[in-house]
Amino acid sequence: MDDGALTSDDLKTDRTSETGKTGANTRKVFVKTYGCQMNVYDSQRMGDALGRDGYEPTQSIEDADLVLLNTCHIREKAAEKIYSELGRIRDLKAERAARGLETRVAVAGCVAQAEGREIISRAPVVDLVIGPQTYHRLPDALARVARGEKVVETEYAVEDKFEELPKSERRQIIGRGVTAFLTVQEGCDKFCTFCVVPYTRGAEVSRPFAQVIEEARALADAGVREITLLGQNVNAWAGEDETGRAIGLGGLIHKLAVIPGLARLRYTTSHPRDMDEELVAAHRDLPSLMPYLHLPVQSGSDRILKAMNRRHTADDYLRLLDTIREARPDIALSGDFITGFPGETDEDFEATMRLVREVRYASAFTFKYSPRPGTPGAGMDGHVEESVKDARLQELNALLRRHQSEFAESLVGKRLSVLVEKPGRHPGQIAGRSPYLQPVVLPEAIGEIGDIVDVTITSTGPNSLLAEGMTKPDPASSRKDEAPTMRSVA
Ligand code: SAH
Ligand code: SF4
Ligand code: F3S
What we know:
Blueprint (H helix, E strand, L loop, with lengths): L8 H4 L14 E7 L3 H16 L2 E3 L8 E6 L4 H23 L5 E5 H7 L2 H5 L5 E3 L7 H9 L4 E3 L7 H4 L5 H6 L3 E5 L1 E2 L10 H4 L4 E2 L2 H13 L4 E5 L7 E3 L5 E3 H8 L7 E5 L8 H9 L6 E3 L7 H6 L6 H14 L4 E8 L6 H14 L3 E6 L17 H25 L4 E9 L5 E5 L5 E5 L8 E9 L4 E9 L17
Parallel strand pairs: 1-2, 1-3, 3-4, 4-5, 5-6, 7-10, 10-13, 14-15, 15-16, 19-21
Antiparallel strand pairs: 8-9, 11-12, 17-18, 17-20, 18-19, 20-21
Helix pairs in contact: 11-12, 12-14, 15-16
Bound molecules: S-adenosyl-L-homocysteine (SAH), iron/sulfur cluster and FE3-S4 cluster (F3S).
Enzyme class: transferase
Pfam families: Radical_SAM (PF04055), TRAM (PF01938), UPF0004 (PF00919)
InterPro entries: Elp3/MiaA/NifB-like_rSAM, Methylthiotransferase, Methylthiotransferase_CS, Methylthiotransferase_N, Methylthiotransferase_N_sf, MiaB_methiolase, rSAM, rSAM_horseshoe
């Protein structure tokens, strides 16, 4: 919930994929991912593609023949982090060169798209800058780098990158565990006045229905139990089902819900304007659609919402939540908030606090407004002092934190289904997630990775729930024979 922390801790870790065979000629790639889940997904796909190209992943940057940074441009801090990392990589490259080793450096992601060649001017250590729409050209771009070129690939490709990127292999999927991301939509047409995403990721595009279903089946076949559908504006997904009928995200989720082995579905991130009836109905009708919804509102003040070009009022948002809660009464909500958008007064901020008190979020992400080059917000009057942004952020965080722990406390004594995901931190423990995405610590004897177990919550930890419970997994989760080598997501 800190400023600058868009993602949970595990999204900040290196997500190099499990690929490649060891051998004398194997080159090693170190991938570091910043920003949102869509970057995590892209890094996996790039890692998989590089695996075909003879690269083996490494967790140690010192050993890497290729360092790939998948970057985020959302706030100034996020973008600046890349340059300090590139400074360290420059030193590393010099040390490796002294040992006769070559190191190539590639910058992908939203900073690559936003800054292009400028990155090489500022950090000459960089050999390749590649934007999110051209990842399928990565092997070709690296071949050009090998010939001594500095390469910048930031044109929007006419071809479909997902069609062109090699499909992940079964062993690659298995290596990543029982939960998976699946990008179904990219780009954004909303143009909120604070946000760079429409510029870095381009216009809204939906991946075709058949492509999504095929990928989801491959994930399920490799033992994945939970899929999170991703998109910058995921609920704007639109397509045609196998009969040619036009469907939205709700329709797509209906089709995914019947894939054998898939026990849980989630989606993120949604815009309130695109929560249509079909999607709300999916929350009512599909038990596998988890009762947790990340629905950012940014502010509770209509004046600020208008200046942000969110195109809804606070009341529209609250009425929408009424409809969603009617469909799925136990739904837990999560949101994003910005403090100190230009022109935000104490009263505007108070309206945000009021909205938060009314909604009672189960979790939230909060950010101080960061003016981004090229966005309308940056040129607006009434920029708010850093200290005021900060004070508001602290006040908002305190309230959200209180609600979050009250929500967790309210689950003590209740029975919840938990997807077991990985070994716990301590011997004798395993770790999973509640339907509401909370980490749950369980006794090891209760089940195996990939099982969905019913447990009673006995207490709450600082960021998790502790459970005691029955050992019998649900019948649908007995898939151990089909995925014998499943490992945890580290
Ligand atoms: N597509 C998603 C979120 C994209 S960015 C959506 O519309 O909700 C994730 C979050 O970062 C946003 O919800 C917003 O809260 C925050 N954010 C985006 N631009 C920002 C900026 N310039 N300063 C501070 N926070 C920002
Ligand atoms: Fe950015 Fe707004 Fe699009 Fe979300 S909906 S990605 S905040 S422009
Ligand atoms: Fe960051 Fe780009 Fe995601 S700016 S939040 S990595 S879409």
